[in-house]
Amino acid sequence: MAGIYVHIPFCRSRCIYCGFFSTTSLEWRTAYVDALCTELYERKRYLKGEEIETIYFGGGTPTQLPVSSIERVLNCIYNIYNVRENAEITVEGNPDDMTPELLQSLKRLGVNRLSMGVQTFSDERLRFLHRRHDSMQAIVAIKEAQKVGFDNVSIDLMFGFPEESVNDWQEDVRMALSLGVQHLSAYSLMYEEGTALGKMLDDGKIQEIDEELSLSMYEHLLNATFKAGFQHYEISNFALPGFQSKHNSSYWHSVPYLGVGAGAHSYDGCNRHYNPDSLKEYLEGAPLEEEILNDDERFNEYVFTGLRTSEGIDVSLLESLYGKEKKEYCLNNARKHIDTGRILYDGKILKLSKSGLFVSNDVMSDLMITALD
């Protein structure tokens, strides 16, 4: 199986934390969809005829495209690629775009999964992020989606805002779980270089919360989602049984995928390819960049992505893919974390324990090959 990711970079306004490629130049939408369809045709052999299991419209804000444009892209995919029956088709969107009319149209097109960028149910924090919606619009959008018949709804939440308390975060989690969604993605607020939020931090206008407070928020998330029946299947992702994101799971399991659109990435099972993160260059047909991964880099990705998931790393598969020497390297470096209980190992699978989740970056980096090794 394989997947197709469609990057829609258009946003009505920019959020202060966003590090993804996006643009507010909405006048280029028609030309952009033309370019997407051209790219889908020109790269039809990239996935070597593999059956397409997932299609994901991400951004940016895909719901800033007219429904007719989303339909056109979907038609291109179905006409060119071998899409399996009942493929997972996800559209990301902002809550204030999710009108009953739009939701009904997406349902008619065969979209069967929605991912809403809620981020928080606090109007104060939404204004801080420069989000366009308020908390009530988010709640209404989720309920409207359910009313239209969407039974696979995911929402994104953020924690770790400046001056946010554990109680504030607990209220966000409580509200999210009370709305009957099937999937929850939760991320610590990131201060990326080049973003407005990053500049505010550099200028001393805001301060990050301390690490202990952030870990307390994450621990509450683990406990609350577990009590609500959610499976913690990836470090930042939680789903009711049967509702894990198939598309995102393919990234963590090294499944080939085609990414089309400005700034989109692709993976053919061996190497990565990148489109320019420039609307002008993309529309002008700039060539793809290629990243050729060596054996060590592929090993590192296998370790990194495997430990992010609840399934962990299959040691026998690790050996068959990368050889006995790399397997022994991984096990030897994992030993100290096994001894401290940060990694669980049953002789077959290596995976993070609950305590290991709190220091996951340190644990994962210890098992990866560095230039010094």
Explain what this protein looks like in three dimensions.
The protein is α/β, with parallel strands linked by helices. The chain has 15 helices and 15 strands. The strands form three sheets. The protein has a nine-stranded mixed sheet, sandwiched between helices. Strands 10-11-12 form a three-stranded antiparallel sheet, with no helix packed on it. Helix 3 (100-108) links the parallel strand 3 and strand 4 (113-119). Helix 3 (100-108) packs parallel to helix 5, helix 6 (166-178) runs parallel beside helix 8 (211-227) and helix 12 (315-322) runs antiparallel to helix 13. The longest helix has 17 residues, at 211-227.
What would the keywords be for this entry?
alpha/beta, Arc Repressor Mutant, subunit A, nine-stranded mixed sheet, 373 residues, 15 strands, three-stranded antiparallel sheet, TIM Barrel
Strand and helix map with partners:
Elements: E1 2-8, H1 29-42, E2 52-59, H2 67-80, E3 83-93, H3 100-108, E4 113-119, H4 123-129, H5 135-148, E5 153-159, H6 166-178, E6 183-188, H7 196-202, H8 211-227, E7 231-234, E8 237-239, H9 246-252, E9 257-260, E10 265-267, E11 272-274, H10 279-283, E12 289-291, H11 295-308, E13 313-314, H12 315-322, H13 324-339, E14 343-345, E15 349-352, H14 354-357, H15 360-367
Parallel strand pairs: 1-2, 1-9, 2-3, 3-4, 4-5, 5-6
Antiparallel strand pairs: 6-8, 7-8, 10-11, 11-12, 13-15, 14-15
Helix pairs in contact: 1-2, 3-5, 6-8, 11-15, 12-13
